[in-house]
Amino acid sequence: MDDKTLTCDVLIVGGGPAGLSVASTLPDDVRTVLVHQDHEIGLPVRTSGGCWMQDVERLGIPADMYIRINTSEAFADDAHTRIPMGDAVPVILDTPKLYKWLAQQSDQKDRTLLLGTKFLSTRQRDDGLYESTIRARDTAYDCVVSKYIVDGSGWHFAVLDSLGLAPKPERLAVGTEYEYPLGENAPDRGIIFVGEKVPAGYGWVFSTGRDTLRIGVGVIQPDTDESPRDLLDAVIKDKPYLERLGLKLDGEPVVHSGILPSVAYDDRLVFGNVVRVGDAANFATPTVGEGIRICIELGRLLGEQLGKAVKTGQRGPLETYERLCRGKLKRDYKWGFLVNTRAAKYTRDKWNASVRRMGRVEPEAIVATLRGEFPIVKIARMAWAMVRRRIYARVQRLKSRLGLA
Ligand SMILES: Cc1cc2nc3c(=O)[nH]c(=O)nc-3n(C[C@H](O)[C@H](O)[C@H](O)COP(=O)(O)OP(=O)(O)OC[C@H]3O[C@@H](n4cnc5c(N)ncnc54)[C@H](O)[C@@H]3O)c2cc1C
Hints:
Number of helices: 11
Bound molecules: flavin-adenine dinucleotide
CATH superfamily of the largest domain: FAD/NAD(P)-binding domain
């Protein structure tokens, strides 16, 4: 072992919301190394930052890290509706600021954060420890020896792939976003657009609270071969379409792009002393690909349980993490994935009908679908409300036919 080797209890690969949240709840004296291939936490931007007020409050995210969206609208080729949100309030996170804040939560701990450092591979030695090869531009370190490894590398599955523990996801949601000056556009409006402009995907528009507005497109590959950037360029060039969306885009945009897995949820998260979290564990909702709040919540849970595992040497805490994640996500994500695969094949007419329906159904049902939540009681209540509406409509029709209305 040379002076280019770091030794620790836990190696965390990836400084996104998941990896940073794990580090934030590990006990202060657990020796941790976090390697992050980007040169700055939170940059470049690879996500949109949509979330919900109820979650940012629950997770203790400071109020200067998000803005609220007061009007939500959906557009299909021949349909447009205001999305009824009821009491739910969508918010847009300032992700560079939020991720830096998440990183600060472990600044006082025995944690070494290596930026601009890429995890390359790992192997388990005869003594059970993992010897991981890393590459940093400053070449200060090239090896980390650890008892545990957390794969928080997002869709890269960097650790899982290196050890052959899980295949890299073959179905991916790929997104591109342009950030423009806000100009005359509304500062609190969110839009979803679907249909022929975005096959096997959807588009979005919202203001950021930093005097800018983002417009983006995400598609599922290989369900479509189209590139999100080409689709987005076609939207931007289509002035009548932008007018229909009520948008005025001026100036040079900043470009963001990102990728996340879009595969069925796999509840195996623990492989001996290797644990996965975040997008590497497919935590984003299958309905709209919203992952940040779930990565923070379950990342914190992993930090707590892993801390107990390090202290006691027991397997139980990691099993608890796996079990609690399964309980929280497995059933909802099964339903959500069904919605995802069906929607990926929607035609123009189906999207038109779907957007028209959005304006009519209970806010609770829309919000649950957007959040990827399908509890049995809620589904039963939604189905009953639908049946009641249909019976009422039939009775009204019958009454008017009989001249009783
Ligand atoms: C276009 C798009 C829009 C989205 N919009 C939303 C949204 O509106 N709301 C929402 O909640 N979620 C959204 N998501 C999903 C959300 O961004 C993810 O669920 C979330 O970022 C996952 O966090 P993570 O920490 O698991 O992974 P990531 O955020 O991907 O972070 C992993 C980090 O690990 C680093 N890394 C990877 N490999 C290595 C390696 N070998 N060595 C070192 N570092 C490595 C990467 O550079 C990366 O920064 C969106 C995703 C995309 C792609």
